[in-house]
Each structure stands twice: as C-alpha cells, then as structure tokens.
Amino acid sequence: MSHRPFYLSQPDSPERESLANRSSFDLSAEDPESQVLFSSSYSHGHHIAFFDKVQSFLRGRGFNLNFNKLLRTKRQRRRGKKGLCQWPGRRRLCFAFQAFLVAVLLLATFIAIVRPSYSKPPARYHELLLLAQSSSEAGRANPGKEKVFIAASIFDPKGNLARGAWGKSLLSLIDLLGPSNVFLSVYENDAGPVAKAALEELEEKTTCEHSIVFEDKLPPDAVPEIQLPDGTMRRRRIAYLAEVRNRALRPLDSSSTKFDKLLFLNDVMLDPVNAVQLLFATNAESGKADYRAACAMDFSNPFKFYDTFASRDLEGYSMGLPIYPWFSSAGRAESRQDVFDQTDSVRVRSCWGGMVAFDAKYFQSTADDFDDLDAAGGITGANFTGFRFRGEEELFWEAAECCLIQADIQNPDEGETGIYMNPYVRVAYDTTTLSWLGLSRRIERLYTPFQYLINIVAGLPRFNPRRAQQTWQEVQEKVWVPNTTLPSGGSFNVIDRIATHAGFCGTRTLQVLKEDPQAGEKNWEFVPLPNG
After folding, report:
1. What is the mean pLDDT of residues 389-415?
2. Which residues form the domain of 110?
3. Which DSSP symbol is given to 220?
4. I want to staple 268 with a disulfide (CB 3.0 to 4.6 A). Which of 72, 294, 354, 467 is the partner?
5. Same domain? 267 vs 385
6. What share of the chain is helix, strand, coil (3-state, %, to 5)?
C-alpha cells in the first residue's frame, strides 16, 4: 500500500459546510482574541524534489527576483523610463532589499535541509507507516487490536464530504484499524436531500458496525432557549454544537463493547495513516499511547493554525499569533518550549485541531469508575454514563464545547493534564492546503522571532480574569445579573462565588443562532455586550 495521501485521488476539494464546524473556530469571527508525514519532502534523499516544489510554487505565482523590472510600471516599460532601482539614489536601497530577500531565502533553504521543523518523528511513527504499507490485510495498522469508536457530526448539503476525499479517507482508516475493531457513528441534520443521499451511499460502503443517522430537522426542544437582556428568546450556538456532537456519541450509551479509543472527526482532509499515528503513537515512549486526549493540528492555509478558540496552553493562556510556534511566551511558556523541543506530545490544557483521539473510558464509564477516572469535572449521579460535550450557562460568558470537554476529563493535578497537542499530525480544510503542509512545516522555525514580536505588539495572549482560578476556590467574579427594572435589562455585578475548573476556557462574549440565515451567511452571530 502506497503511503501517498488517500485524499489526492479526489480532484475537487469539498467546501467547508459543516454547520457543527463551519466557521466554528475562525480567528476573525468566533475567537475574540485573536504533507502529511513521510512524504518525499521529509526524506534526506529527496532535496531535489523539495527545491523543485519551491521553484514551481514561486513561478506559479509570478515571483521574480528581477526587482528592477518589477518596480517599473507598465507605463514606464512602454516609455522606456527607468524603474525605481535604476535611479542612482535608490540603487543602494534596492540592492539592500534584494540582499535581504536572498539572505532570507538562503536561511529558509538551510533550515529546510538541516533543521526542518516537525519532520523527524519518533521511530514508532515509521513503524506504523510500514505496517500500513506491509499488506492489504484489514487491521494491519492496529497491532494491539484496540477497539476504536469513530464519531463525526457533519453538515454536508452538497454531499462533497461523504462522496469525496473525507469519505474515502474514513473508509481507508476503518480498513487500517480493522472493521471488526471499529464502530462508526456519523450524525447529520438539516442538510437536505442531497446530503441524505450522499450519507446513504457512504453507509453502503461502510464495512464496520455503524450508526449513520440523518435527521431532516433537529427537534426544537433539543437546544433550550435563553432570554437576552432585551427580552428576546434565542438559542446559544455552543449549546447547539454540543448537542449535535453528543448525538454522534449516542451509540456509546447502549453499546456492550468497551472501547479503548474514541476518535472524533471534523470536516477535515486527512491521511488515514496520520490518524492511526495520532491514536497509537502519541506520547507512547513506554510502548503504548498514554493520553486522555491527543489532538491533531488543523490549518486553514499552509502557515496558519486554525483552531485557536478551543486551544489553551498548559497554564490556560489563549494562543499567540497562530503561526509557529503557535503559543505565546506568557507565564512559564511550557507548551511553547515543548514545541521548540519538537515533542509529539505538547502539554496543554485543551486543544481540538479538527481530529482528536480520546481515552474512551471517559465517555463510557459509570459512577462506579470514579476512582479510576479522577477527572477534574468530577462525576455526579447514579446514572452517569460518561462525559459529554456541553456549553456554559452563564450569560455573556462563552467557552467552546471542545475546550470544556477537555477541562472536564483532564487530570486535576497541576501540570499533568493528560491533554496533548501533536504537531506531527496535521489536517486541513481542503486538499490543496493539506498537500502543502509537508513543505511549509520544514521552514516554520523562521516564523519564531516574528511571532514573538507580533505577540507583544498585539497584546497576545488576551487577559482572562478566570484563567488561573482553582476549583472550589472562593473568588470574586464579574457576572451579568438580569434585572428587568433597568433599561438595559440587567447589569454586570461583582459577586462572591466558588470557582469552577473550566474558567480558563471562557471569554466574555455570547454567540447565538440566527433565526433565519440567508444563503451564504453564517448561521450564528455575536450578541453585543450591554452597557452596565
């Protein structure tokens, strides 16, 4: 079996249309703060291919180092006038500029060859790759025959995901893990007849036990309404996202199988071998993967990390500028240092990254397992069947459901959360971006000084008054208190209360679903913070 990405056989990149995920973690929208491994570009014997790709990329975009020509306008060239660099007083400046660019190019070339970033994974990653290539036998990349529950909630109105690269990668992943070891659960709603037909086609090709559910409409009472200060009733967006993700987990409630791993997928393009590596190789120095959650990294273009809204470093700080090394230098900067150390298990308090592997016991256990779980979120109720996604209930305090679930399941001991980000495993939202990640990562160390300076100038990470709170600690917090006698419908008051374990996830915002979004619009919006 070739190790080339499975997604390359699909010519058309599916649009990012998942209602549960579309625009969910867009840096300019939701977050108020702010190739695949083992391809030819990773081996020492393929530097020529590497430079051919660079040259092709630059030529395809009209890049030319003849800056004297570039700095002349069309009109100047027609009239034979001098370009900016031909004027005697400007030649030195142009020469210095060209020399700087050449120096940067040489430095990038040196780094790409001698010190490429996240291009030399631990040996166990290559061992899993060899297993995947060794034969066509089902389950060949799952040496421990571990039971894996794969969950996805999607919104695919054109059927591009189910019929395209995403669906093909999913089926290939099932083959690598072994159909007898996998349960697949896909949930979709409100996406129309084309989406339903595409999902049915995917189901026909699925070789493992599965629950593929399509609902024409999510029941109105599935997401409770809240009252805004102006008296209107709306539904919170995060509560909706939590609900559709939880519907993908419903088969766990009745399953008699005890799963070892749970893999949650967004609408991302991925290499199935990378998914296997995330599951079985992350933090596996002892020979067996050890984590409560292990996240891939998702990219919206070859350079920009996407999921900042759900990601927090080991001390709960939000992300820095979303280019390498992604984290800020705030506090002890341990997550940032882990990136510099090129570890496959960057310690964090939360992450998501489009594809996340979990220890399944946190989603399938009972209250009797409390001592074994020892989770920060605690366990209450005799009918406890495992942790689930949720949203915040406090008005004008929002946190991603993907951050809250990791706040709930993480180890309560400081510095040992059991939550890891794995930069060796990368996914994207289109096949073109994914095909470039193997190249762009090689030079990403270059971004470090620029990221550091921009973090300072931009004031990143943003201040979160609840970041460092300890569970059960008595704190004073600014919260919205409804009061219908006030023109604003309430006011922000400072009150005494007991801190929770998830304050680091939040921001002072409120996101609600739109009642009737127009074609091409996002289905959610921010509610402006009231005065008071």
Report:
1. 96
2. 41-114
3. G
4. 354
5. yes
6. 35, 15, 45
